[in-house]
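Please review this pair:
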Amino acid sequence: MSLSRSPSPNKGGGWSSPGLTTNFDNLSGRSTPRKGYGEIQMSGAIGGSDVSWTTAKARSDRVNGYPSFETRHDGFFTRHARQLSRGLPSFVKGAEKEKLGRGRWYPNNGSRTGRILGFLGRSIWRMRLRLLVVLSFILAIIVFYVTPMHRAYRRASLLGGGSKFVIILAANQGGGVMEWKGPREWAIERDSVKNKKKYAKKWGYNLEIVDMSTKKRYAHEWRESWEKVDTIRNCMRKYPDAQWFWWLDLNTFVMEPSYSLQKQVFNNLAGNTYRDINIYNPLHITHPFNSTQLDATSLSAVGDGKPSSIDLIIPQDCAGFNLGSFFIRRSTWTDRLLDIWWDPVGYEQKHMEWEHKEQDALEHLYINQPWIRSHTAFIPQRKINSFPMGACGENGEDKRIHYKEADRDFVVNMAGCEWGRDCWGEMYNFRELSNKLNRTPWEKFKDGISDRIKAMKAKPEKKEGKS
């Protein structure tokens, strides 16, 4: 069996591929290509005659569309991008200054400022993703607070919970019946209403401004102050989804609008209230009851001790209960209380004895009815109802009652200012103090400059007065 390779497929010998043609005969004696690589003619086609290697390469380049003297992927845009990149600054360590800067651009001709700017630019570019996240977060905060989105959030029952609260403001007290209202009385009402509207809008609370002008009567008597009970019941019908109702007298002023009711009271109801009246008992009420016929809850000084059972939250001043600012919750117990509180029998029998009308009536119910105590809680007065020094000030300042600027008390109540005090003067002073305490940083900056200018002007005047 011959081990020689197969003969050439071309007629007459020879191989179609030049590289396979040599000048040596095969050892087997068979016919082999006789023409050498150098003897191949420079012309001819692949299919028939001899093929030139240079010619085949040139044809291949024409088919692929790339000149033999250029690199691939070197179109119009690529060439221009390369030209631009040549003009950018290069940061090669150890390169000569002349060669490095030739034909290149540097900020401020390569000065210190230019190098700093370049360094900052490179740093910003490396941190671009982090900066994008930070800027997006800041933009989201600005959009949230500039647009009404934050009010919608605070009002939503599942988010901020503002819709669960109703502020009831008594307005037009005695107007048109008790006495004619002068400019000062109208100014007090205007400031008080504006203050409550601003606070309710900020936190998404409902605001019910009640006209307390004398309209409702019972029998032959005008039921002054008892209308507070009937007004609360009407508001509960008007706001069926609300849970807590906050009564405020007209002579109150919200000093710290940045405090929400949730943060101030309800997020920690057990810690902000107390059930045992013996903690502060200006009326000297015996508590709890001493009777073997009552259940364990009525005999306990703190009721069942659960915050969920609190339906009435009252502050106490130096004389007892104060209903200028108090909370009441919607419940079956509350419906029962309002019915008994509004009972005309009690009014007919006691309205001449009870100096403070509905306030004395509630104290009477608390003293004599065990079921009232188990759902009533008390709150420190300065939490929701601070007094100015003119109220309860016979014995000097009381830290439990009187307003303190340093502690930033929530609400101030000018209780009893109509009896020998200046209601408008107190309202004006507390309004200006609240504006001062709640200034923005920009407002503080402007006021500081204004104060310095005034101080500088005052010094020459003092010197002239001395001379």
Summary: The two ends are 141 Å apart (CA to CA). Residues 23 and 265 are 109 Å apart (CA to CA).
